[in-house]
Design brief:
heterodimer; A: about 90 residues; Alpha-Beta Plaits; two-stranded antiparallel ribbon; B: about 400 residues; alpha/beta; Rossmann fold; 2 domains; seven-stranded mixed β-sheet; six-stranded mixed β-sheet; about 40% helix
Chain lengths: ~90, ~400
């Protein structure tokens, strides 16, 4: 008999950490973005994507609402606001 | 072919026949000769194996863990402090379900430092999830290595096996040993086929965090598998007999004149040879005595022990290790085996002998039989020197 022993790549994609969010979620304003990619680099879930200025967005099924992207944004172009509703989870 | 060999040499020959791809060990008395011989074989080109020199036993165990994890049969040997230094990795090897074979040249534990034989080292690691087989002589030491890989590597088992050989008594003792032919070993022991392995072409993670949602099942699975091992060892023993001709019966215990015996000693390892001689001597005088040799200490064959001892009125359990502050490690198992059973021995007495290499002589065994009376004794130390004991120190 065997218990859980090994884990194959991409297993954590099944863990929808978006359900951990409690109150706040990031809003990407896309006004003053300079594409410095700090939000992309800082996100602990690696769920922010984007290339050009004002194109960055996060995947709400993984975003835990930690707020680090908003904190690190030099242009204050990301803000944390009350969750709009449950549908994004 | 039968050869007159030192135990360590015989074990090295057995390991060579099993063709491990990775060997790693750190020298410690009385295990050193085993890996010294293996290093020589690798250097001479007789054995195609990677011999990895390391700076400690912790590293040696980690190297062979990695070896088996990449799907390669691996081997290490150690003793005493070395085994304790490996302890953390020993639990990991079982937890990762990696079928390593390790020889433990049984030796006492410090302090005070003592390089001689008892079984405290391997007995102290009884809860690690390993299969532990205790050899009485050098032939068994050889055969249990071959069986060890066969048992541990079976895809239904996947657990490590510790072959316990009494330090010096076996490792440095010369005996005629039958070293089997390579073709027979190849027939008995197919190449290792891992269920999964570390491979850059097909990446996976082993031994990662298992939170409270996952951990308990890993332990339950090992516990259940060790129950299966009790049924699997006899099957492997039968396969072994059909290939090599030597019959270890169920290979869990060996019964020596137990059928009509009134007094039986239960013991493990090389001391069983001495007990057999004492039994022969006492039988010649008409005394109904016998021996129950425990081969598999983990998993412990409770049902088999009950079956062998249920009609014996007086049982003595001889431990070459102590569980300080509690009943002796082998004695508790024998007593537990009978708890709640209708038919039990009237007396199960527990004796400690041979710690730190003190010789267990024929007279010691006779004394145990003499002290096995209708009055049950517990933790009776044999051959103790009262003159070395004092109530106060430093006066």
């Amino acid at each position: 008999m065997f218990g859980p022993l090994v884990v194959r790549p991409n297993k954590s994609k099944g863990d929808k950490t978006g359900t951990w969010r409690t109150q706040l979620e990031p809003k990407f304003l896309r006004k003053n973005c300079i594409a410095c990619r700090m939000c992309f680099l800082t996100c602990p879930e690696g769920c922010i994507e984007g290339k050009e200025k004002n194109t960055f967005a996060c995947d709400y099924s993984y975003c835990k609402g930690c707020g680090l992207c908003a904190l690190v944004c030099p242009k204050k172009d990301i803000i944390m606001e009350e969750e709009s509703g449950g549908e994004k989870k | 072919m039968k050869e007159f060999l030192e135990g360590s040499r015989a074990i090295a020959e057995a390991v060579k026949l099993c063709k491990p791809g990775v060997i790693s060990a750190y020298p410690i008395t009385p295990q050193t000769h085993i890996v010294e011989e293996l290093a020589q074989m690798v250097a001479n080109g007789e054995l195609n194996s990677q011999f990895v020199n390391v700076e400690s036993e912790h590293s040696a165990a980690s190297v062979v863990l990695g070896g088996v994890a990449t799907g390669v049969r691996s081997y290490t040997a150690t003793s005493s402090q070395g085994l304790l230094y490996m302890a953390e990795v020993i639990f990991n090897i079982a937890g990762l379900r990696l079928p390593l074979v390790l020889a433990c040249a049984n030796r006492a534990i410090s302090a005070p430092i003592n390089i001689w034989n008892d079984q405290q080292d391997s007995v102290s690691l009884r809860d690690a999830g390993w299969i532990q087989l205790y050899a009485e002589n050098n032939q068994e030491a050889v055969d249990f290595h071959l069986m060890g890989y066969r048992i541990g590597e079976d895809k239904s088992i996947m657990l490590p096996v510790m072959v316990c050989v009494d330090g010096f008594i076996l490792t440095h003792g010369m005996e005629p040993v039958d070293i089997p032919e390579q073709e027979k070993v190849d027939k008995f022991l197919p190449p290792y086929k891992p269920l999964y392995k570390l491979d850059t072409a097909e990446p996976l993670t082993m031994g990662l965090l298992a939170d409270p949602d996952y951990y308990m099942e890993t332990r339950f699975a090992i516990q259940e598998t060790l129950k299966d091992v009790l049924n699997f060892i006899p099957k492997v023993s039968e396969e072994f007999r059909s290939v090599f001709g030597r019959d270890y019966k169920d290979c869990l215990v060996e019964e020596y004149y137990t059928k009509d015996a009134e007094k039986v000693i239960v013991a493990m390892g090389s001391v069983c040879g001495t007990i057999k001689e004492a039994v022969d001597e006492l039988r010649a005088k008409g005394k109904k005595v016998g021996l129950l040799k425990v081969i598999s200490y983990r998993p412990f064959p409770y049902a088999r022990a009950c079956e062998a001892l249920k009609n014996v009125s007086r049982v003595a359990v001889l431990d070459k290790a102590v569980s300080l502050g509690a009943y002796a490690p082998l004695a508790v198992e024998v007593k537990a085996a009978f708890f709640g059973k209708k038919k039990t021995p009237k007396v199960i007495s527990s004796f400690i002998a041979g710690l730190g290499g003190r010789d267990i002589t024929l007279e010691s065994v006779r004394e145990i039989f003499r002290k096995l009376t209708s009055r049950e004794v517990s933790l009776e130390f044999i051959d103790l020197k009262p003159e070395l004991l004092q109530e106060e120190y430093g006066k």
